[in-house]
Design goal:
Length: about 425
């Protein structure tokens, strides 16, 4: 009998979790018993992310060994991220204007979620400028950056360290071999941890459904439908056309990433799949130096799904309060989102935090966020999935732009993947 693939195992875990959560809706015992299991799984993934990022970047950059090449790679990456996230914001605003998800909703029919935990962070984000983002890329203390999980600072240090190893030539070979072995060991750990994904998904989704219940989705169903439909449109049309421009089929990419997309959707955690995404994009023909730089950086600068959602959610809240935003105000909203959504991926509940910071600056009541906080997990599942697709495609686009994409390697990997599945 053929063994079930990981995607099917995760899907079964997801369905069983939904069933359990629905049966025991409102029962705190579900969270008490299942939350530790889900938390342990997410922690196992987070535990290996920083060693993978450091070792992969050091090996990749030391192999390239040219500061001009690395600088050019960084510049092209940021330009691509800025273009695609701006398109995502515009698509989100267009969808909210066309479908008006907040119109006709009675505020007294909605349950309020607790947003107090996000308000303190929101003040920091509101004062967060693009200059601050670039200043914070350079760590004062690399050990503090490692402890805090400051991924941009870790990337910067790893790039500089990789260049340092390349500059000392033969003397740096033992250090390079150490990081090569570390990288391989970490990816082996990833494969072992991923075997626990179905159990982690079962626990996380069971807790979520038992807390909010299926019935709480009904008053906000129009928002959920608009968000999901717009996300699908963005992936298939915008990212699909982008993929076509670099002669890649978006459906081939989705096929390769199916396990990771199901896991990202189920856990609402893009970190849970970062190690496998780096590994798969390298197998798909992208060089190590590009995958190990572009994908982790994308977690701070290329949150397509998150920025698209924030644009829809901002207009949804405005429509809910009967506020008619002019074109000028909406352009202002785009500009604010372009700044506030960059470089703060490590902040807990980042999308709600960015939304709180953005609403106040364009005259929309921030209290409106409380009405969608209860279903944020459901929306987070969609935006996380889109973020994963966007960052995976970014690695291919930048590899093609740099003229370093190995098309034959990609074709062979796709063929062998289809054969195995």
């Amino acid at each position: 009998m053929r063994k079930l693939g990981l995607a099917w195992q995760i899907l079964i875990g997801l369905i069983l979790g939904i069933i359990l959560g629905t049966i025991f809706y409102g029962n705190p015992s579900v969270e008490k018993f299942l939350q530790p299991i889900g938390t342990i799984f997410i922690r196992l993934i987070k535990m290996i992310i920083i060693p993978i990022v450091i070792s992969s970047i050091v090996v990749g950059v030391a192999g390239a060994g040219d500061i001009k090449k690395v600088g050019k790679l960084g510049g092209k990456t940021i330009i691509y991220f800025e273009i695609i996230t701006t398109v995502a914001i515009v698509i989100g605003l267009a969808a909210a204007n066309i479908f008006q998800p907040g119109t006709g909703i009675h505020l007294d029919s909605l349950a309020k979620g607790d947003i107090s935990s996000y308000l303190s962070t929101e003040k920091e984000v509101e004062s967060h400028s693009l200059a601050d983002t670039f200043i914070n890329i350079v760590p004062q203390n690399i050990f503090a950056a490692l402890t805090e999980g400051n991924i941009l600072a870790i990337i910067f240090f790893s790039v500089m360290f990789g260049l340092g190893i390349a500059a000392i030539g033969e003397k740096g070979r033992p250090v390079l071999q150490f990081f090569q072995a570390t990288s391989e060991a970490m990816f082996n750990m990833t494969n072992n941890i991923m075997k626990l994904a179905p159990i982690g998904v079962f626990a996380l989704i069971g807790v979520t459904v038992s807390k909010f219940g299926i019935s709480s989705l009904i008053p906000l169903s129009k928002l959920i439908i608009v968000v999901y439909a717009t996300m699908i449109f963005f992936v298939l049309v915008i990212l699909g056309l982008t993929a076509k421009l670099v002669k890649v089929n978006i459906f081939s990419l989705l096929k390769i990433l199916k396990d990771e997309l199901v896991l990202a959707f189920s856990t609402a955690s893009s970190e849970a799949v970062m190690p496998k995404i780096i590994e798969k994009m390298e197998k798909f023909g992208c060089p190590k130096v590009i995958t190990s730089f572009v994908i982790p950086t994308g977690y701070s600068f290329n949150l397509d799904g998150s920025t698209l959602y924030q644009a829809i959610a901002a207009l949804f809240i405005a429509q809910m309060y009967g506020i008619n935003m002019s074109l000028t105000q909406q352009i202002s909203l785009v500009l604010v989102l372009m700044v506030t959504s960059k470089g703060i991926a490590g902040v807990p509940g980042v999308s709600l935090v960015v939304l709180l910071a953005t609403l106040g600056s364009v005259g929309i009541p921030i209290e409106g966020v409380a009405f969608i906080a209860g279903i944020d997990r459901i929306l987070d599942m969609a935006r996380t999935t889109v973020n994963v697709v966007g960052n995976s495609l970014a690695a291919i686009v930048v590899s093609k732009w740099e003229g370093q994409y190995d098309g034959q390697k990609g074709i062979k990997y796709l063929a062998s993947f289809e054969e195995r599945n």
